[in-house]
Amino acid sequence: MSWMKKSALLASITSVALVGAACGNNEEGGAAEGDALSGKVVMDGSSTVFPIMEAVAEEYSAEQPEVEVTVGVSGTGGGFKRFVTGETDFSNASREIKEEEAAEAEENGVEFTQLSVALDGLSLVVNPANDWAQDITIEELNKMWTDTNVKTWKDVRSDWPDEEISFFSPGKDSGTFDFFNEAVLDDTDIREDAQLSEDDNVLVTGVAGTEGAIGFFGYAYYIENQDTLRAVAVEGVEPTTETINDLSYPLSREIFTYVNNASLKDKEQVADFARFMNENAAALSEEVGYVGMEQARYDENMKMIDELAGE
Amino acid sequence: MALPNSEFKNRKNLMNRETVSQQIKRRLRLNEFFKYVFLAGLVFALLVLSTLIYDVISKGGGWVDLDFLRNFPSRRPEDAGLYPALIGSLWLMLLIVPMVFIIGVGAAIYLEEYAPKNRMTSFIEVNISNLAGVPSIVFGLLGLTIFVRVMELGNSIMAGALTLGLMSLPIVIVASQESLRAVKMELRHASLALGASKWQTTFNVVLPSALPGIITGIILAVSRAIGETAPLIMVGAATFISTTPSSVLSDFTALPIQIYNWTSRPQAEFQNLAAAGIIVLMTMLITMNSVAIYIRNKYTNRH
Questions:
Q1: Class of the CATH-defined domain A2-17+35-119+254-309
Q2: Which member of A12, A49, B136, B242 lies 3.0 to 4.6 Å from A61 by CB, making a disulfide possible if both were Cys?
Q3: In this complex, which of B150, B239, B251 lies closest to A68 when CB atoms are compared?
Q4: What interface predicted TM-score (ipTM) does this complex get?
């Protein structure tokens, strides 16, 4: 493994040098005095965060049509790979940055700040024909998702029927899986017979078509498919906008964007975009199926942005 | 004249008419049977295709209008369009076609007409054929390393076009080689006998005769390239972009990326938009292919 890490490191160092050289000549960005900004704002990362950022970029381009905003979807991990080399200004993430990733950024001299954008509730869903599992505990979830001896719902709770369980989970590269891994699986390996898919719509179809199925994904996918799926309350709390917002739903999670501090300081359009995003994130997230945070959290973000941008 | 008669009798004994007619019947039945097996194959393929087309048109047909082509993507499905993706794909196509034509046909001409027939050449040919089967994501990784990072093209249209062009090259080279090989030797000899040099022969005689086959190869390769998503995502093409490209060094997005993004969204309306995007992509491919078929027919008639 160590040679792999070494060569990865080497590759990233070379790429920083190259990217650094590339940035020097064609990304002066910023703008003259006045309101109209120009230049680039480059974002990449999680597909979970994408709909929010697409909405922000859509609104922003009405305000600053000269600024070129690009949003990619390389996934949380893929986004960080580009972010830690300084290629991107923002990295969207559905989990916090990992230690290895942060270490790589430090090595490359990239300083960053984490901004929470909105909240999502990881929703556990079952087939509508399942009328027994109304409520489930984290402990039961952990047992059923990791222990292959659990074959039927009866094995989870003795008064549930003898119906076979099929498992549907997002792929292991997704931030959603990482969150579930941390919050429920406790880093134990997920059972091998679980069906994994990178496409959440495949999971929706799978759970909707299998009577004993259970699956999980972001709240937006549950809300859009309420007629074919039913959400199970976790520790007695159902996922709703309110329970996710006040964090009483145990599988509420924050979704983030990480901003490159140097970009924020040196590129006027990046700072302007960051402020615009922070002001509109709550309203726009709800429009695309997420839950906004308390205003105080956005105020905190704004303070950080102002400090870093050097007002 | 007893002999022929007896021979005739013998023959009559040798070939039992009933057996013969039965055997012929069996052969004819077998013939019929396979005719229907092959027909069933065709019908099955067409059925799958028409189901797909029906599905796409019934879902997306209502969403394709002028605004859909002119608008930028939006969180509101009714306002969303694929203008930047359409422009990005057109740029890609304009760059890829001349690139694969010049390099691909050039390589094929060298290998067929000039290269000595030795082990080295056949080694190169085998490797080119193998490259045609390499998964597109591998070309994406190559593009990321070479074009995006080493050549410092960034996540630009040029980097994307070079990557897709590289991916298409093996198919173009192999197809071009085959059609060059199919040109009759007599044509070359006639031209050489008239005093034409090798280059004159190749350019004026061989290439025009081989052109229909070469163009078919290019159509196939470029159609595949235009529908690729993975290598473009690898070279860092954006999924959302707020501006349209102004040069080959601009950032971009392309139709398959936009379609892929819409299919993964939770709202059903976006799935319909994806279907509408597929209609646009298919129309673009059909238009491109029609133009190529027109050119091909023009040349086929001439030679």
A1: alpha beta
A2: B242
A3: B251
A4: 0.77
